[in-house]
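FAQ

Q: What does a record look like?
A: Structure on top, sequence underneath. For example:
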């Protein structure tokens, strides 16, 4: 798996995990992600961190939950990226966890995270995106 693919999978995993906090999908997320994290850290340590951080999102006012999730998102993306680097064989289990959690998230709940990056490709490049908005800039980059 390429570094870019690992980063994308870690980003999707973090978004699914954090997006499930303070929703009906939270128990599913915990059940699916904890076995992944148990490969490295003690499961109790990770479970305690997840529980505490989910409680922060739960306590946030309804309008502030998106900001709380956005603050936690890079933490779990980094954790998952490290997990995939140490255990590339965990990629399939992570994909399954993501799919399981996403299927239970309310449509409007899917976390929104901006992750700008540049892609330089030749004339015949093809890009596929799931749950992603791709903006093409040709030439002048001063306007979106």
């Amino acid at each position: 798996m390429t570094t870019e693919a690992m980063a994308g999978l870690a980003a999707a995993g973090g978004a699914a995990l954090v997006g499930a906090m303070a929703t009906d999908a939270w128990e599913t997320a915990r059940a699916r992600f904890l076995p992944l994290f148990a490969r490295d850290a003690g499961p109790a340590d990770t479970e305690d961190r997840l529980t505490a951080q989910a409680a922060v999102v739960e306590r946030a006012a309804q309008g502030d939950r998106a900001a709380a999730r956005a603050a936690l998102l890079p933490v779990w993306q980094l954790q998952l990226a490290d997990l995939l680097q140490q255990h590339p064989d965990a990629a399939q289990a992570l994909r399954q966890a993501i799919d399981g959690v996403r299927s239970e998230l309310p449509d409007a709940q899917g976390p929104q995270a901006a992750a700008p990056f540049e892609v330089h490709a030749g004339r015949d490049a093809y890009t596929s995106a799931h749950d992603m908005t791709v903006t093409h800039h040709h030439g002048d980059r001063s306007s979106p």
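Q: Is there anything notable about this one?
A: The CA atoms of residues 22 and 55 lie 8 Å apart.
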